[in-house]
């Protein structure tokens, strides 16, 4: 009987600890949401740039730097450097602003415009205003036009960098992002949700377990400086990949360990690394899943530890690979 009491006490303490951590995280949602979005480390903007990017203005047609721009490369956000569009998706529409019929996956967020008619497009990472999206005009086979202000963009020639995307889930996205962000070759990181079935989920919905999503981090990296294999190895070295649907005190399906591969090459790379870990006698719980829609998390989740000065409570670096 004493053993039963002891077990109940241990389980109660553990569960209470989990609830407290969740409560602390939810309190952050309430008390720090607005402050965190203001404290992010973004590029300095000129008054003219602020008028467009922050205040959601529009530059005059046919005046922008990239209207008649035809180099091969990547267009990035002027405010945060996140890659937004590839030159291969740019086309001539004659509208007076740069036009694209597709974006880099997960890079652009679409929201209803205040005019109640149009759909605004903003950078998924920093929320900077880009322009508007229009459908059904018939300019290209994709039948959509991202009408973007040149002043919202910078351009990186293709011979300078080679952008690729990786998506990892391994517990609370705060810690994963913190330990991956400052690695060599990382262009940008975005905390978000993926792997579920509900469109545009909120943090509260994901926590409630109703969406099937995992807390994940989408990484844009320069493959000329860091390989996908190196990032996969680092991912395994910064979280406990043997735990199922949890990461230390954080418990729930959203805290599962999972790699969302973009293509077959990434899948094979991840499978190879898992095989190496298995040979080292690790019981790997990490799932491999083809990437689908990635939903950017709320602003206050982005760069959380950098903006609060806190440190991860359940993610640490542990060297595994030579």
What does this structure look like?
By secondary structure, this protein is an alpha+beta fold. The protein has two domains: 47-157, Peptide methionine sulfoxide reductase (Metal Binding Protein, Guanine Nucleotide Exchange Factor, Chain A); 161-308, 2-Layer Sandwich (Peptide Methionine Sulfoxide Reductase, Chain A). 28% of the residues lie in helices and 25% in strands. It has eight helices and 17 strands. Strands 3-4-8-7-6-5 form a six-stranded antiparallel sheet, with no helix packed on it. It has a six-stranded mixed sheet with strand order 16-15-10-12-11-17, with helices on one face. A three-stranded antiparallel sheet has the order 2-1-9, with no helix packed on it. Strand 3 (90-91) and strand 4 (99-100) form a beta hairpin.
